[in-house]
Write a structure and sequence with these properties.
This protein is an alpha/beta fold. It is built from six helices and seven strands. Helix 3 (about 85-95) packs across helix 4. It holds the Pfam family Maf.
Length: about 190
């Protein structure tokens, strides 16, 4: 069995992958995550997931490397990681009462053979109508500045939602485990 590398510095992805009870090491990829002109959210996350895996392959030439990326899309607008409170407030106010689609790109690269599997996992979230006080309390409690769309589904973010729709709730946190288990199986790794 080839050793597994998670090409990510995300504590959320590390925690999710840990649920599969497999040994792995994390390695932070260094790539430019800027969207290309006219690139759709789906194209962006698939490209970035693949590039993240490829970015660490030189350091891990006989490994299975997992790359993942996520964007939140409100209509045609991509909601990035807010970075600070003002942007998080603006994002959550824009999402109030609306449906946001999260696209999570997943890639599994066998650096020994060069074979790379990829997929995009969508997940839709309908937000409750959020007043300013609710948004401010949520941001103060969670400080979701490193999360696409300004919320943490695994925490209080769940209280912001009216409805969830998708095949794998883990994709909403950033790593679609159902698809990943299938990909690992094609590489000879059975879980459990």
């Amino acid at each position: 069995m080839l050793p597994i590398i998670l090409a990510s510095s995300s504590p959320y992805r590390r925690e999710l992958l840990g649920r599969l009870a497999i040994d792995f090491v994390c390695s932070s990829p260094d790539i430019d995550e800027t969207a290309l002109p006219d690139e759709s959210p789906q194209q962006l996350v698939e490209r970035l997931a693949q590039q993240k895996a490829q970015a660490v392959a030189a350091d891990y030439p006989q490994h299975l490397i997992i790359g993942s990326d996520q964007v939140a899309s409100l209509g045609q607008d991509i909601l990035t990681k807010p970075g600070h409170s003002d942007k998080a407030q603006a994002q959550l106010a824009a999402c109030s009462g609306k449906t946001v689609t999260f696209y999570t790109g997943l890639s599994l690269l066998n650096s020994k053979t060069g074979q790379q599997q990829s997929c995009i996992e969508p997940f839709s979230v309908k937000f409750r109508h959020l007043d300013t006080a609710t948004i401010e309390r949520y941001i103060a409690a969670e400080q979701p500045f490193d999360c696409a769309g300004s919320f943490k589904m695994e925490g209080l973010g769940i209280s912001l939602f009216e409805q969830l729709q998708g095949d794998d709730p883990n994709s909403l946190v950033g790593l679609p485990l159902i698809k990943l288990v299938d990909m690992l199986k094609t590489e000879g790794i059975n879980i459990p």
